[in-house]
Amino acid sequence: MPEESVQVELGEGEASLHFTDVAVNDWISVFNSLSMGTQIPGTPLPATMSLDVEWSGRRKRLGVFRNESLGFVDDLIEVETVTVAVSTVQAIAAPGATGQSFTFTSDPTSFVSKFSVVGRERNGVFARNSERREGG
Fold it and tell me: Is the pTM of this model over 0.85?
């Protein structure tokens, strides 16, 4: 997925994820995906996915969490609203394949979430470098 698909304004508690026609695999079922396609012959089906999601409405800052032994730093904000403008998946079955072609498009929706978080994580060398810049 292209890096520019994700936009974050952490101080405002806003984030968005927008992408179109990203190549994915459709395994038809969770069990089949976990078994790497051994349950349903002819899978995965090549598919594309488009998604448009926005998070907004800063509730509260959860804080900065550091774990030096695991090498990460998280800065998290709890948000109130999640909006899914469009979600589309399209899979095309190869001729003679067991699976069937399909297209699924969700209805636009916006809802107040019980718990959603946007944040920024740094790990590995990026966490160590940020700790030096932030003074510890």
Answer: no
